[in-house]
Specification:
The chain is built from one helix and nine strands. It is elongated and about 45 Å long. It is mainly beta.
């Protein structure tokens, strides 16, 4: 019964992550944050999505990893999170190693500012030796 419930939760999580690019308004601050997550990366051991959170001209790049196996055991996994503001200097990527539990895990955080009206692009990928690559991307406009 426990594994059936776990499988149902995992299926619901994956269904949520598998939807297309979406924007969700979060009730933080007077301007409010807008989160945009791109389409999932290639199916693999983990399902990956790149996300961008924009609040005014503040931009945060991060990734979301979801387990695809109901028998997942928590383990340390390496990732790469990167972002760019189109027309600006490159932003250094980060390579966090995170303990991934069953379900979904938010990974990394690169924060920068971007001019209003600019386009930002984010990438999120699994960087784990022996695992198949799974890179996810996202693009959003900083609307201020």
């Amino acid at each position: 019964m426990k594994s059936l419930a776990t499988a149902a939760v995992a299926a619901a999580t994956l269904a949520t992550l598998a939807t297309g690019q979406e924007a969700v308004a979060a009730p933080t601050g007077p301007v409010g944050a807008v989160v945009t997550c791109g389409t999932p990366g290639a199916p693999g051991i983990l399902l990956t999505r790149a996300c961008v959170e924009v609040t005014g001209n503040q931009v945060r790049f991060y990734g979301v990893a979801a387990t695809t196996n109901s028998g997942w055991q928590p383990q340390q996994v390496g990732f790469t999170v990167s972002g760019t503001v189109v027309g600006s200097a490159p932003i250094a990527p980060i390579n966090p190693t995170v303990l991934v539990q069953a379900g979904t895990t938010s990974v990394g955080s690169i924060v920068t500012t971007a001019p209003c009206g600019s386009t930002v692009n984010g990438n999120f990928s699994v960087n784990q030796w022996g695992w198949p690559p799974s890179t996810a991307t996202v693009s959003a406009v900083v609307s201020c």
